[in-house]
Specification:
about 350 residues; 12 helices; Aminopeptidase; about 40% helix; about 30% strand; PEP-CTERM_FemAB-rel; globular
Length: about 350
């Protein structure tokens, strides 16, 4: 009698994200597995539309059913080289699987895909990676906290010192608006451009924000704080799986004195709860940085994030960390650039900073 054998082995293949039925199948799998917004094909497509960094991905399946999914953006830059990133311009991603064997198969397939596409590196922002990959948990932390049941409790749940700053902002003549129309987008981009220039960072192209808003529809919007009609703080947020993610936000210099950022995040908490959200995902911050401390001041507890990478034999790892000493002089110069120049040159550089 012959020994029993499995009817079908698990296979890994590259997915066609131009196929609506394939997209629907993966979207269902992401929802079923409780994946992040950065696992969604919508995110990959928005990145491709907004920056030109091609959407890709690998699926594992058995007997016709998905068992794993690795979202990828094929990032190419004259300054920063070529890489497959899971996921591009995201703080999350990596293999979405039910077991480590499937994750390993997806990662090994990603190595082969990277070699075929002349990419020197594969980067995972979350998930399991093979033992021969480099992994670390000491660079960034995430900050997530439950939203309160009502406005009063939400304010009371914030630690005393930060709560005092919010109370000061509530006493000021600040206007709050939420939307995704042209005026909202224009106000957000103007504020964001100035904010990141002041931090010494090249701004992303506005096409990226427009693409994200278009792809996510009612699951993305912009909240803006104005003083005397002038936008001074603004944030583009995503809504996914009961979470609100204030993803791209900032304020101009006047925002600090007017506590506009404090008002912005507090108003977003109230707005998100009315949309049915249960958690506030404050995003990631570099461990020990100023933003890291700022989020702790709001009562959020840091959770280390696991990242991994594989570098092709004979190649040097990509270095896009703005906190690296090699970039410190460039950052200081960028902070002094006139805003029109920074806004013109920034998007050309930032497309490769996925």
């Amino acid at each position: 009698m012959n020994a029993p054998f499995p009817l079908s082995a698990e296979t890994v293949s590259q997915v066609d994200l131009r196929d609506p039925s394939e997209i629907a199948r993966i979207e269902s799998f992401v929802a079923e597995m409780g994946g992040t917004v950065f696992h969604r094909p919508k995110w990959l497509r928005a990145i491709e539309r907004g920056t030109g960094q091609k959407a890709a991905g690998l699926v594992a399946e058995k007997c016709g059913s998905l068992t794993g999914w690795l979202p990828l953006n094929e990032v190419h830059s004259p300054l920063f080289g070529r890489a497959l990133v899971s996921s591009g311009f995201a703080v999350g991603g990596g293999p979405l699987v039910s077991n480590s064997k499937t994750a390993e198969r997806l990662c090994l397939a990603a190595e082969e895909l990277a070699m075929r596409k002349s990419c020197s590196e594969v980067e995972l922002r979350g998930g399991d990676a093979p033992a021969h990959w480099r992994s670390w948990e000491d660079s960034h932390c995430g900050f997530v906290r439950d939203l309160a049941v009502d406005d009063e409790t939400q304010l009371a749940d914030i630690p005393r010192k930060q709560r005092a700053e919010i109370r000061k902002s509530l006493a000021l003549d600040l206007e709050v608006s939420v939307g995704s129309g042209e005026s909202d987008c224009a106000a957000h981009y103007a504020v964001y451009c100035e904010s990141v220039r002041n931090l010494g960072t090249p701004v992303f192209p506005r096409a990226l924000f427009d693409a994200v808003l278009d792809e996510f529809g009612d699951h993305a919007d912009i909240l803006t704080i104005r003083h005397e009609g002038v936008p001074i703080a603004s944030v583009l947020s995503l809504y996914h799986g009961g979470d609100v993610l204030p993803y791209w936000g900032g304020g101009i210099f006047a925002a600090r004195q007017l506590r506009a950022n404090e008002r912005m995040y507090f108003e977003l908490m109230l707005h998100a709860r009315k949309k049915g959200c249960e958690r506030f995902d404050f995003g990631r911050s570099k461990t020990g940085s100023g933003p890291f401390s700022y989020k702790k001041n709001w009562g959020f507890e840091p959770e280390p994030l696991r990242y991994s990478s594989w570098t092709a034999p004979g190649q040097a790892p990509r270095n896009i960390n703005p906190n690296n000493d090699a970039y410190s002089a460039k950052i200081d110069i960028w902070k002094r650039l006139p805003l029109p120049i920074a806004n013109f040159v920034g998007p050309l550089i930032s497309k490769g900073l996925a």
